[in-house]
Amino acid sequence: MNEAEADFTKFVRERGSGLLRFATALTGDRHHAEDLLQAVLERAYSRWTRIARRGDPEWYVRRSIVNAAKDGWRGDHRRSAVLERLGAEEEYAYAPFDDYVTRDAVRRALHGLSAGQRTVLVLRYWEGLSEAEAAELMGVSVGTVKSQTHRAVKALRTSLELREESVAKPAGRKP
């Protein structure tokens, strides 16, 4: 194994699970995210020497994931599946019923957003990027990030408020 292969293998070993979580959050589907990440890493492997020489290979791979996800959204108009839970440690963890209800409501609300709005929320609030960093990663202006964030948060609030109202009023009873 040469030095570039060893460096690439180390990068994937150290950052692979984080990149998969990132891709899953963007696509809303764990299986699609795995395929997307594999395709991006295959392309990165053949160019790894140049990518590593630039100094920030993780940024390059994340940008490639965002671009590949956008390409998928343009070519495939099917809606993504609801976001899956990540990590095997969550599979058997105890969570109160209210937590499941809340998690389900948020997933449904996120599912109702456009792909661009969901991407902005993932970059800004999940990844903790600034508006400028998110704009650079998405290849859009800072103003687009601001407006998409505003619209996405407003849509989430509206969706979650409507769900809360429908849950709070039992069917068949008059107020």
UniProtKB/TrEMBL annotation:
Residues in RNA polymerase sigma-70 region domain copies: 12-78
SUPFAM superfamilies xrefs: Sigma2 domain of RNA polymerase sigma factors (SSF88946), Sigma3 and sigma4 domains of RNA polymerase sigma factors (SSF88659)
Pfam families assigned: Sigma70_r2, Sigma70_r4_2
InterPro entries: RNA_pol_sigma-70-like, RNA_pol_sigma-70_dom, RNA_pol_sigma-E_actinobac, RNA_pol_sigma70_r2, RNA_pol_sigma70_r4_t2, RNA_pol_sigma_r2, RNA_pol_sigma_r3/r4-like, WH-like_DNA-bd_sf
Keyword annotations of the record: DNA-binding, Sigma factor, Transcription, Transcription regulation
Highest taxon, organism lineage: Bacteria
All residue ranges annotated as the RNA polymerase sigma factor 70 region 4 type domain in the record: 104-156
Family stated for the protein in its record: Belongs to the sigma-70 factor family. ECF subfamily.
Alphabetical list of NCBIfam families matching this protein: SigE-fam_strep (TIGR02983), sigma70-ECF (TIGR02937)
Name this protein carries in UniProt: SigE family RNA polymerase sigma factor
Organism: Actinocorallia aurantiaca
